[in-house]
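Possible regression after last week's pipeline update?

I re-ran a chain I had predicted before the update to compare outputs. Posting the input and the new output here so someone can diff against the archived version. Not blocking, just want to make sure nothing changed silently.
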Amino acid sequence: MSDRTTRLNALRTRTAPLAMSAGKFREIGHQLVDLVAERLAGVPDSPLTRSESPAQVRAVIGAERPLPVEGEDAGSLLTEAAGQLFDHSLFNGHPRFLGYITSSPAPIGMFGDFLAAAVNQNVGAWSLSPLATEIECQAIRWMAEMIGFPQTAGGLFVSGGNMANFVGVLAARAAAAGWNVRAEGMGRGSLVLYGSAETHTWIQKAADLFGFGTDAIRWIPADAQQRMDVAALRRAIEADRRAGLQPFLVVGTAGSVSTGAIDPLDEIATVCREQALWFHVDGCYGAVAAGVPGVPESLRALSLADSVAVDPHKWLYAPVEAGCVLVRDGETLRRAFSYHPAYYHFDEQVVNFFELGPQNSRGFRALKVWLALRQVGRDGYRRMIADDILLAEHLYERVSRHPEFEPVTQSLSITTFRYVPPDLRPSAGGDDTEAYLDRLNRELLVAVERSGDAFLSSAVVNGRFALRACVVNFHTSLGDIEALLPLVSRLGREIDAALRREPAEPLVAAGH
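New output (post-update):
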């Protein structure tokens, strides 16, 4: 008998190295769930981050070792990996993580990712993922309802905010170019797009990737509240038309990354209607707050947009990855992305998501969002988002009353502020003092992060460096907010004293 025949006979009862019996799967799974539950319960009392160097982190996994020749026990590997991750990660689920707009992950979302991986659907074509496709369609309708968008809108789930905004831009390009840009490319016209100076850097990536070039972006000035100057927008559009260019897209922001600023979306929508331009809203952070009582009225006007980008892994607390794009006319997505190669034979009466976006193979991202929407409902989300906003507002109030801090901005659940030693308050605004305060607060931010007791980020507001606290965390409590300023104050005094001891750049305080 040949070696080939022997091998084929052995495959009658195949056992692959990756295979696992139901009993073993259950045993390892239960052990892992118990371990993760125990470690998650301990996160609030553990350092938020250990501030290790890259070399220290690489040493944990033996980064330089070669690919193993022989395999290892799956249970032991998972236990080891879980321990390493919990001991050497930055925890955005920690109640004092107030840094970037990355939320604490909902437990049902964790289970959703587990279940999605188990079923392993390719949610590109309906025939490959019938129930998963219908769940995503329903989740899209619910997302539209949540932000006040028509439930008849189209859309799909994507990896995150950049991709959601990209899809909106590509839909706009196909709809508003004035020629068949998909077939003929960008050679027939000079398309230009508009966003405020506070627009996230995704717009530069989009202009680069999709053939406009970053010079095609018109950066519209923002006012003192970081909101787009609509009069300047009108002037820019008129100037480009006179120059023979083709305006096609205006991007409004519903909750900027730096300060949570909301552009005057209603006014921008009016300009876009008058000028026949596509109106896209980057609502990755703020869109889901549109139905929360007390939010700025302008936020509700995102319902007037042609397309909206939303990030469920921000303020819907979904585990990463989960982005979403909604388009008022769902057929626009089909016109922007659909092709029909000979080997695609799918029923036209159902949704095939490969026709509505850039991916053919798509994971089941919608499941974790759909499950969470069902678990807590619209009102549950509104309550949690309102709580986050209230905590951020409370921080702003405490900053405003504290002798060592200066409030800078407050919008949605983002508060920015800076540490200002009391004796420097009279000279704040002067060039020398402002340069010193920028340096002081930069070093203070690093010290807070290294402490492991809290995590902030930064913003530059009207030329001033500020500390930034963003609450998108359903674990964060009033106690966490009230513990923040004593920590930052203590570290601020220490850094201020150290900087003033430096002989090279002595600082003369006001009145001294």
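Follow-up from reviewer: compared with the archived run. The domain at 385-500 is CATH 3.90.1150.170 (Aspartate Aminotransferase, domain 1). Marking as no regression found.
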